[in-house]
Design brief:
CATH architecture of the largest domain: 2-Layer Sandwich
Main location: cytoplasm
Pathway: Metabolic intermediate biosynthesis; acetyl-CoA biosynthesis; acetyl-CoA from acetate: step 1/2
CATH topology of the largest domain: Nucleotidyltransferase, domain 5
Family: Belongs to the acetokinase family.
Bound molecules: adenosine-5'-diphosphate, acetylphosphate, magnesium ion
Strand order of the largest sheet: 5-4-3-2-1-6-8-7
Shape: globular
CATH superfamily of the largest domain: ATPase, nucleotide binding domain
Function: Catalyzes the formation of acetyl phosphate from acetate and ATP. Can also catalyze the reverse reaction.
Number of helices: 14
Pfam families: Acetate_kinase (PF00871)
Largest sheet: 8 strands, mixed
Oligomer: single chain
Helix content: 25-40%
Length: 398
Amino acid sequence: MPASASVLVLNSGSSSIKFGLFDISAAEPVLLCKGLLDEHEARPRLVVKDPAGEDLFETRREASDADSGHLFADVLGFIEDHFGKGSLGAVGHRVVHGGPDYSGPVELTEEVTAKLEALTPLAPLHQPRCLAPVHTLKAVQPALTQIACFDTAFHHGLAPPASSFAIPRRFEARGVRRYGFHGLSFEYVAGRLVEIAPDLAARRTVIAHLGNGASLCALRDGRSVDTTMGLTPLDGLVMGTRCGAIDPGVLLYLQQHEKMSVEAVQHLLYHESGLLGVSGLSSDMRTLLASREPAAREAIDLFTFRAAQGIAVMANTLQGLDCLVFTGGIGEHAKEIRGAIGERLAWLGVHIDPVANDTARERINRSDSAVDVFVVPTNEEITIARHCAALLRKRHTA
Ligand SMILES: Nc1ncnc2c1ncn2[C@@H]1O[C@H](COP(=O)(O)OP(=O)(O)O)[C@@H](O)[C@H]1O
Ligand SMILES: CC(=O)OP(=O)(O)O
Ligand SMILES: [Mg+2]
């Protein structure tokens, strides 16, 4: 491989840290290997697989190594051993919040990194996890180019009224508005839709990204015109441990009557709510689907009720619905959830074919469905690799 021809992509989500190494010497990035940094086990683990999913490498850290940052350095070591010294041209990071200033990828200088760290109160579950590896990798290889790609960027064109909150306007001027997240996923899925169903791609589409975090995006002409997450990734749908949209009076009540501190309310809403809070069992949809506990069923019902409700709201923004796409861990794998959401939306002309839904091979609607329904596996990592490759090329030709 030519020197500096690859990009390492890190995707730090709320429940997982995934990565991919891409060759960017051709127009379209090619996956060389992928992996997972697993912090949930007693000893943090790094697993690297080839593009087909066969194991290439695995290492574990001591339990005392509470900071899994060392694992990022292990990834660099693996790349040097396997692909040669100097083969890595840059690292691309998924950064959840880009704030008002960033509508596209940006190089992570110290100034930019500090600016993004200041946004931590707006994404406390994600922003520190996204930015921690920037420091670790800088300490190991100070000369390495690091690039941030934002969840918020895809929604940068959101305009009032979709982007506005009904509070005095002076707050909007200070950046208090709907930003929206999961943009790297929506961008990828919108691109795939152009390939799968070119006649539909410009039409009224809702993409349902249902993972540990969950949100909806309404697209017209492939662009975001509304979304369920807001200033923070707490708004909108029921999530693994997040509450989604909630009467803001509840927050006041918890502070005034339950005497909870701001930090305690933040912890409750980000870490203890959602599927976990309602079921009292788990934030993981697989566990809930396998459970016979009534509380698990109640959590699932609330999840599908609110997802269907949100899709109807997005359809109203679009003044109709032509196409519905499921993605994310739950959207791609949980046929029961897709089926239940479809049933709640039958009045809107959503009719899912049970056999196609079982196999989840792209199109899953019945032939008499007014709405075309698809399952499209997301790929935030390749979206980041594409952005990094474009930025590096621009820098080269500048
Ligand atoms: N086969 C499956 N059936 C049902 N749910 C699944 C399945 N596989 C993954 N999930 C769910 O997907 C969610 C994680 O989604 P994912 O998009 O991978 O997370 P993240 O938001 O961390 O990127 C979990 O709730 C998990 O239970
Ligand atoms: C923004 C967000 O909620 O991301 P994730 O689903 O990866 O937690
Ligand atoms: Mg995710």
